[in-house]
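W.,

You were right to be curious about this one. When I first looked at the sequence I had no strong expectations either way, so I just let the prediction run and decided to look at it fresh. Below is the sequence, 134 residues in total, followed by the output.
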Amino acid sequence: MEAAAASTEIWVLGWSAVLLIVQVVAQATASSDLGPAYLFSPRDEPRESNSVVARRLYRALKNLIETYPAFIAIVIALVVTGKTGGLAATGAWLWLAARVIYVVIYAAGIPVVRTLVWLASIIGLVLMLIHLMT
């Protein structure tokens, strides 16, 4: 199991958890205009931040969460089957790099490029799948 712990895909999985935590904290921090009473409440009545950046960060986080389970599952499958490295490692790094760039571009409000970066993250997942399935 030591080889699995040292695999590129496991390292990228660890960094992806860092990205998730950073996105959650950034989104929460940017939503501070909602006030502590609301932020510490059960939020039974949904409210939106007045901050455009906070709303963008929230949507970027939701977008990450849409593909994150697939990324985790593929990494686990690659490690369990011993198919780490090569195209899978390239795909994992591509996915992570694209996700980092995506959140920055989304927060900045840059259209079109955001979609292309998202597509790059999907290509990263596909590369990982190709390596797993061959």
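Here's what jumped out at me. The CA atoms of residues 31 and 54 lie 5 Å apart. And, maybe more interesting for your project: Residues 52-81 form the longest helix (30 residues).

Coffee later to discuss?

I.
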